[in-house]
Design brief:
heterodimer, A: 5-stranded parallel beta sheet, 5-stranded parallel beta sheet, 19 helices, 16 strands, globular, B: 279 residues, alpha/beta, 7-stranded antiparallel beta sheet, 7-stranded mixed beta sheet, disordered C terminus
């Protein structure tokens, strides 16, 4: 575990620089760098990579925001955090107010401050990009959020008027928790159902400790519980309870169960010992704590690990493999570096940690020894052709380019699909051809009063897009419960076009 | 928390626990299972629900001590509580509606078989249970099964009942004719032997596959099994499948994935290594 960012100047820190007097002076301040564990050190531990800004760095960075009257950054944020407002409080030394402001917009700021792709959202549209580097909004968000988590007693406690309306939320991942936080603030009686024995969804089972410490997630959940959110763990909707039962029990439902089902490569040898889905690999390590030798849950420690895929989950898997002792950890991706869907920061971190990247390579067969233990991955080389439906250039096989990567573990991280467990138990819920729930402009499914968001609606996406769904759906549910239906235009839950474009990118 | 209200030692390494789980007791169907986690740091273990009492709000679990986690569970006493019991998971058994069913159980598989025998018997199906163990002390649930139909008991060493494997007793029943369905649950070699035996007779045969799993909801894909050349998940598509379509070789092999880890964990626990019951 890493120490949280120092909320106040440590005794040995130098005095703050002189306050800039003008925007010209602000523009002259260079963007601060995030302190991080050195690559060769962190490749062998599960401690957090990014260490968080110090007080001085945070104050310096806060001065870089020029407080645009019409801030683009807010439009770039799927949950519409009033970014200039919390930064202004911070730089004025009013950190409690900064925290209060941030928390009123974002139910999980410690999480988003760590895992959001700010570079394609708020920071991408920061006005300062025109003349250099954007304000490090993500770093500042994390700084303020970590302070809030350590100083909850300094924040005012809300006492919303209770409405007596009951809302059931299925899934305690980012979409579900965000909706829970919003709805409990509105005075509703909120219960969150979670299939696993611990809350957090992908924040707990998927994203590794070194990117998002599990104590941080638990503290965010604890805060929501202290605000009145009820949690029911080990409850699998579609098995333990059915949707019709929940509809009888609750005035509204929000379904946020995630995508969940792993996609495999569909190549020979995929069921040999030593082939994991990324879901299984990461769940064993993260949720079940198999990274610790004390864990009762086993994990295969590969010496030479190949991870198939180029998204954030692939980066999480390959970096985990390095930390579990792999001498060689390789990403196999069928397109080129340009098309890598993973966050730039994750790719950069992976490279620093010694991860090998094999671009324009696709697996065709898993090889094994006589005891059916994996010994290699037979691959072919690809070249990029014309753009396909996703706008990316379609990879095609170069004939006769077969080669083998020797390895003892293969992790498949090529995506997920809809889990039919919940939808299969409620046939009246309309799904599209891929099994994802169909919702209207307000996030409501084909069942009145039953809303849905996150990956089970949009397919595998990011934490922050799921949180955006949670926030918009919460507003729509609020209108539904208050009889103000359809909701007034500003709570329209339809995806903003800009955000949709970001998601596709 | 799920308090243990009853505990019984069925054989040297099989324990029967009655556990409070009111919701699951109300909705479970035969063939379904739960995922159990003893407490913080514990493994998630899939266990078939052997019985339920909706009134009392309890379910019955039969646990065979194989590795560290199952050994710790079998050592739990009345008054202690299991932290997590999630379910019911899996699909329910496709039950024969009428006629004669032979239910074959090996070792702790007999416990998994019990709810199926009960459901068949309740539906008016004539059930013959064929159960086995290495020797007398490894035979479990004979009394319970006798209350529900005919029972043929076999022991490998002849110390009790018929001398020999369950498959030999099953062959006699098949030869006698009139068997409409076979349900077989036990170690993989036993299920494979039953499947090979029934195939030429053309008797529909169902097996329950104890694949390694983490979540039990289809999320990890660890429990993938090959059925008729297609990948299926034991946790959601099963755990029961048409025996004649199962790739038993692959299942047996995948079950050995963590063998060395399991042995180390057991050594750490300081328990005597218990051997799997072979029928």
């Amino acid at each position: 575990m890493t120490e949280p960012a120092a909320p106040l100047p440590a005794g040995d820190e130098a005095e703050l620089p002189v306050k800039p007097a003008s925007n010209k002076e602000r523009m002259a301040i260079e963007r601060v760098a995030m302190p991080e564990q050195p690559g060769e050190v962190r490749a062998h531990n599960f401690g957090e990579v990014n260490q968080g800004l110090t007080y001085q760095l945070a104050m310096l960075e806060a001065e870089r925001c020029i407080q645009c009257p019409k801030p683009f950054c807010v439009d770039g944020c799927p949950v519409r955090v009033d970014i200039p407002r919390f930064i202004k409080f911070l730089r004025d030394g009013e950190i409690a107010q900064a925290a209060e402001s941030l928390l009123s917009d974002n139910a999980l700021p410690c999480v988003t401050g760590r895992v959001c792709p700010q570079e394609t959202q708020c920071e991408q549209v920061c006005i300062r990009v025109k003349k250099g580097n954007p304000v490090a909004i993500g770093y500042l968000e994390r700084y303020v959020a970590d302070w809030a988590q350590a100083n909850l007693d300094q924040l005012p406690k809300a006492h919303p008027v209770q409405t007596g309306k009951k809302v059931g939320i299925v899934g305690s991942g980012p979409a579900g928790l965000t909706a829970a936080g919003e709805l409990v603030k509105a005075g509703h009686d909120v219960t969150v159902f979670e299939a696993f024995h611990a809350p957090g969804g992908v924040l707990i089972y998927g994203i590794p400790e070194f990117r998002l410490p599990k104590d941080i997630v638990q503290a965010e959940v604890d805060r929501l519980v202290s605000e009145g959110v009820k949690l029911e763990l080990d409850a699998i909707i579609g098995r333990t309870y059915t949707i019709p039962e929940l509809r009888d029990e609750f005035d509204a439902l929000f379904l946020a169960v995630g995508a969940g089902l792993p996609v495999f490569m569909n190549v020979p040898g995929e069921n040999y010992k030593g082939v994991y889905s990324a879901n299984e690999y990461l769940t064993r390590v993260n949720l079940m704590g198999a990274w610790s030798p004390d864990s009762q849950t086993p994990i295969l420690h590969g010496q030479r690990v190949v991870v198939v895929g180029g998204g954030n989950v692939a980066m999480d898997s390959v970096r985990t493999a390095r930390r579990l002792g792999a001498e060689e950890a390789t990403i196999v991706y069928r397109r080129s570096a340009v098309e890598l869907p993973a966050r730039a920061e994750e790719v950069h971190h992976a490279k620093d940690e010694g991860v090998i990247f094999e671009y324009l390579v696709a697996p065709v067969e898993v090889l094994a020894d006589e005891n059916r233990w994996v010994t290699g991955l037979r691959c072919v080389r690809m070249e990029l052709g014309e753009p396909d439906a996703s706008g990316r250039r379609r990879p095609t096989v170069i004939p006769g380019s077969d080669f083998t990567i020797d390895c003892d573990l293969v992790v498949v991280a090529i995506g997920t699909k809809a889990n039919p467990l919940l939808t299969g138990s409620a046939p009246e819920l309309k799904v599209n051809e891929w099994g994802y729930l169909i919702t209207d402009d307000y996030g409501m499914t084909s069942l009145p009063g039953v809303f849905a968001g996150g990956d089970i609606v949009r397919g595998a996406a990011t934490v922050i897009l799921a949180m955006g769904d949670g926030k918009r759906s919460a507003a729509a549910i609020n209108s539904w419960l208050n009889g103000a239906w359809p909701p007034p235009p500003e709570t329209n839950a339809k995806k903003p076009e800009k955000e949709a474009a970001v998601a596709a990118g | 928390m799920h308090p243990i209200v009853e505990r019984e030692q069925l054989s040297p390494n099989v324990v029967r626990l009655v556990v409070e789980a009111p919701r699951i007791a109300k909705v479970r169907r035969p063939g379904q299972f739960v995922i159990v986690r003893k407490g913080p740091g514990g493994e998630r273990i899939p266990l078939t629900i052997a019985d339920n009492d909706p009134e009392a709000g309890t379910i019955t679990l039969m646990i065979q001590a194989i590795g560290r986690s199952t050994t710790e569970l079998t050592n739990m006493q009345v008054g202690e509580a299991i932290q997590d019991v999630a379910g019911p998971l899996g699909s329910e058994t496709h039950l024969l509606k009428a006629g004669h069913a032979v239910c074959v159980g090996g070792g702790v598989g007999t416990a998994v078989l019990l709810p199926i025998v009960r459901a068949l018997s309740d539906a008016g199906v004539h059930v013959t249970s064929v159960i086995g163990g290495r020797s007398k002390e490894w035979v479990i649930l004979e009394k319970e099964l006798t209350a529900l139909g005919d029972v043929v008991t076999c022991t490998d060493d002849g110390s009790y009942g018929r001398h020999g494997f369950v498959t030999e007793a099953l062959k006699d029943l098949l030869d006698a004719g009139g068997v409409d369905a076979v349900y077989a649950i036990g170690p993989v070699p036993m299920m494979r032997a039953v499947s090979n035996l029934t195939q030429p007779y053309g008797v529909a045969t169902t097996v329950s596959l104890n694949a390694i799993m983490v979540d039990g909801t289809g999320m990890c894909g660890g429990c993938r099994v090959t059925i008729d050349g297609e990948t299926k998940y034991a946790c959601v598509d099963g755990p029961e499948f048409d025996a004649h379509k199962v790739n038993f070789q692959e299942l047996a092999d995948r079950l050995t994935t963590y063998r060395s880890f399991e042995q180390q964990a057991l050594d750490k626990l300081g328990a005597c290594a218990t051997t799997e019951v072979k029928s």
